Structures
1.
Amino acid sequence: SPFTDSIPVGIIAPFRAIGTYDNGLIQDITTGVEWSSSSPSTAEIDSSGKVEGIAPGTVTLTAQNGSISGTFPLTINTKTLDSVSLLPAPPLSIPTIGVGTTAPFIAMAHYTGVSYDVTTYASLSSNNLDVAIIDNEGVVAGMSEGTSTLMAIFRDELGTIVITVRQLTLESISITPTDPSVPVGATLQMTAIGHFGSSFTQDLTYSVSWVSSSPAAAIISNVEGSQGVATGISSGGGGGGQGDGTTIITAAFGTIFGTTTLEVGGAAPQGVFAGKGHTCTLLTNNELRCWGRNFS
């Protein structure tokens, strides 16, 4: 399943392998296949399906699982990189953050007619580390009041943005989505939004401490790179209504915190079987549920 059928030299694009089984099941098997490129000097592909354009030309990408394989032709084009920009990621709309907080920024490579997110492939830096620092994932940390120029270099093109770090007063935190639900075995990204004075808001997902009141029902991550990701554990872990597990998710920054209720329901579907009279789904707890009608 292509991200695109053509990418410029130097761009890395993700591909997926979709497996179709004889019982009608259709499933993403990207991590369960062996990937290869017919010409690694033109385009390389790694074990996760990410392709990097090396030189102009056309290659055939192959996903192999046992004796079964799928192929896709990919063209590496010679589009010229026009510019690189560095922008605050939504919901942050202006390059201003508070002292002691973090916020994600995005590096974009602009070609004629198309742009690519190259945050994790660009060289990112700050010219005033006393004011702000930026890591390899584009997350900026405000260190002290002042301004700093953030820089992104991709294929020798430079993009910059001036960030202002202010001593802001955090008034409240809200969590989105509000009162969500997640199936057992599934994950859900939660976002913490900090509300400061003068109607200023900032994404604090990477700055807060995340807590689940009932880890038996759901857990939530504080691990770098996956902060705010909730995982449904048990539909009976928290004593919620109708047998569903319930937990209170809290995002705290200092003495300020926000909460939301997370309901944990049944197992999530991981595949669908389409038959003549019935349709079935395989759940993450390995249960099979079917619906439809019988033919006489």
2.
Amino acid sequence: HTRCLSDWISDVYSSDLFLGNQAGYQGNTASNNTAVGYQALYSNSTSTNNVAVGYRAAYNGNGSELTAIGFQALYNNTSGYQNTAVGRLAAFSNTTGVVNTALGEQSLYSNTTGQTNTAVGAGSLRTNDIASANTAVGYQSLYSQSGALGVSNTANGYQAGYNNTTGDGQLFEGTTAGYCVTTGRANTMLGARAGYYVQTGSNNTHVGYYAGYGGGSLTSGSDNTSLGYEALYQCNSSQNVGVGTASPSYKLQVAGTIASSGGNSIAVYGKTNSDTISNTFYMQNSAGDKAANFQI
């Protein structure tokens, strides 16, 4: 039926406000609800403290303390509570999931029972359905996540963690950081395109622009650490640490001089063109003079 001014007066008296054709249509014993738009909060009959603004926003809303703003935002919510959805089709499929926040068109679109997820940006956590405790900030961040195992992931940046499905406990920070990760676990990738091609590898830490970017076995390699621009850009084995080098061949490989400040600095480096002894560590003072050498 259509609400008119006389209806609003009685609704206000019962602490409800319904504005729009069939808004709050079945609100028999519900209270403290606000519905603005065609069939907003249409099916709610007993739940309280809800706000729905937009065409069929929270249409099936029987949960309490819901905020749905936008075309069919929180459309399918049945008993989920304390959910916030702002944007066209935001959290559209949510049924019983609780304490979720979806800000942006189709953010958390497929979520049904997942809990305590935060998605900010169009398409963020778009296909997440039942996983919980994820945070995605940025356009299509953690877009492909699905299944119960993909929990406790954080992605911040344009398409960060885009292909992650069931990987958990990961941190992606930067444009397309960890873009190709699918099932890897406990990865940390900080910097634009850091760890871009890693797919199933786990326990990797890549920090820097293009750090850990490359292909080879790095797509499945685990326990790698890289620091700096294009560090560990390509890799053929696992458990290597590279600092400022694109393809470390050893467990720890540094491109350049390693130095410590304070008093006499110490530098450790390999053989140069002017050196005649291989496999030698040199210690030098702050002036750059070789003080001693140790052959191994």
3.
Amino acid sequence: FVSAIISKFKKIPLITSDQGGLFTHPDYQNRGKKRILYKIQEPMIKFIIKQSEKIIVANEYEQEIFSKYCDVKKIKIIPNGIDLNSFQNIPFNFKNKYKMKEKMILFLGRFAKVKGIDILLDAYTKLIKENEFENVKLVIMGADFGYSKEMFEKIKKNNLDKRIKVIIKPDRKEVIAAYHACEFLVLPSRWEMSPVTPLEGFACKKTTIGSKIHGIPYVIKDNENGFLFENENIDDLQKKMKELLLNPIKCQKLGIKGYEMVEKKFNNNLMGERIFDTYNSVLNLKSNMDNNET
């Protein structure tokens, strides 16, 4: 907000990059202190949008959100990019470290209700009741954002203590090792803008099952590089997990397709070039305007 004020009075071009999805977060829809805070912030956010020369978003879903507040010409889509090279070396054997012989499903993200961990736990509980999936382990990695206590209670209630490995605040080496060790990832979020976790999984040639909601389908292409399931549909998620576990060759092919997509569209070099071009075009426009005034 301060940057927008300086931009206005100093006549310095402002470029804004979205990370929060404006007012689409579930907290904004709920009552309480967070909703009040969002209401207080709303005029400030609208001022920032108005003052911005360009607004950088990661996908068409975010573009649609911002188009309600400004001309779509002001919005520039630049997909997230990751460094493929940083995922190629496996730091250590994850399964050996944790003495794990089972097949492994991975969740990586914040321990928050919005991330849909409860949906995954319910689907996984149903999955392992079938004899052919007794050798499947679920690994949950992340940090607590208000759901940790409820998550552990649910794990205990469903007698999953020995079937689930929870790793709190993993370091980067642990995360990369887990990517390489898993069969696939699951992203069961109730809300997601432009997820990076599936891209990192793709960098390790691992596919992801994600909920068919908001920004997720712009990264996970159903039956092309991964699977999408109907949001909060436990049975559908269980079905998609079964399909990948029973078809390892297909699972591998989806991961390879994801890797190829990251190579072509979601790599950090391409993202850097697009951001540079955007800044350059804004600065050139400002320079031409200044010259015309003189």
